[in-house]
Amino acid sequence: MGQRDAIDAAILKAVQQNGRISNADLAERVGLSPSACSRRLDILEKSGVINGYYARVSPKALDYKMIAIVHISLSGQFAKTLNEFESAVKLCPNVLVCYLMSGEYDYILRVAAKDLEDYERIHRDWLSALPHVVKINSSFALREIIDRPNVGV
Amino acid sequence: MGQRDAIDAAILKAVQQNGRISNADLAERVGLSPSACSRRLDILEKSGVINGYYARVSPKALDYKMIAIVHISLSGQFAKTLNEFESAVKLCPNVLVCYLMSGEYDYILRVAAKDLEDYERIHRDWLSALPHVVKINSSFALREIIDRPNVGV
DNA sequence: GGACACGTGCAATGTCCTTGCAAAGCCAGT
DNA sequence: ACTGGCTTTGCAAGGACATTGCACGTGTCC
């Protein structure tokens, strides 16, 4: 899985910057005819190199004004423990990102909330209810400096 | 700034899930004629509610296999100190996310790297070179559990 | 050298996006 | 309730666009 040449790389770069670029413009940008470009894009999509296209909506417009970074430790690192935690955390729609981490904490989460009251609800109904959790540490984002969809974009 | 009614909300939900949905399909989905739908979408884009569209590319295809979470403390919290740090960090293409935080550390960063060697280079050439930094703490993601573009999507 | 697979460009067809325009809905003030 | 003005809608047309079939060129392997 992966792009094959410089043209595929150029296509990927273009659609990362503008997911709604027309095939005609994309073809011109990468130096191909529209048909050839359309077929390459099709291959990149079907092979899974391109996972999908998304609109980026201003969180404020959706009333999600708050971002919390949550560090979580579990009671153990057995596979069963991790699996149960992960299955549960996937169900919470407010969790935007979740990584299993090296270091002091086991998981790090990025959580979106409408306001502090909303976060309190999420913390109470979702985070505290996750299985095997022994420690939760929430920090709040005061300001967003960077939010890039991809490297160098 | 924000959507006005249920139809705008439905449009936003749709384009968050599929940024390349055709206007015709979108119109049918939200129960409008294509022209009315196109005009609403146009307003949502021009008013900044929709920040843009992007393709989600498999990081593996781009050879970025590593995600690091970096906590950074500065030598002070004066506006000038923060501004200089932020201007500098914005220049590093590998920094995907950066928040000014409450709590123990001042900033939290999400950094993409191709491999450990690449991360070492980023750490040396970029992160360590950021102004006013007194403490850097890097943790590495062992596995990605969730990566949602938006709440509930 | 020949057969084959692969990628490309060209052309055509059908779909789609967009804009102008008239009508309908909506709200405020009387 | 009525009227005036503003907003939003649906329809229609024209122009742009995506997609598919087909033929040509290139490189490879036998």
Automatic annotation (TrEMBL), chains A, B:
Keyword DNA-binding part of the UniProt annotation: yes
Origin superkingdom: Bacteria
Domain HTH asnC-type as annotated: residue spans: 1-65
Listed GO MF terms: sequence-specific DNA binding
GO cellular component: cytosol
PROSITE patterns the UniProt entry points to: HTH_ASNC_1 (PS00519), HTH_ASNC_2 (PS50956)
Pfam families: AsnC_trans_reg, HTH_24
GO biological process: regulation of DNA-templated transcription; response to amino acid
Cross-referenced CDD domains: HTH_ARSR
Database matches in SMART domains: HTH_ASNC
UniProt keyword annotation of DNA-binding present: yes
Protein name: Winged helix-turn-helix transcriptional regulator
Species this protein is from: Shinella kummerowiae
Taxonomic lineage of the native organism: Bacteria, Pseudomonadati, Pseudomonadota, Alphaproteobacteria, Hyphomicrobiales
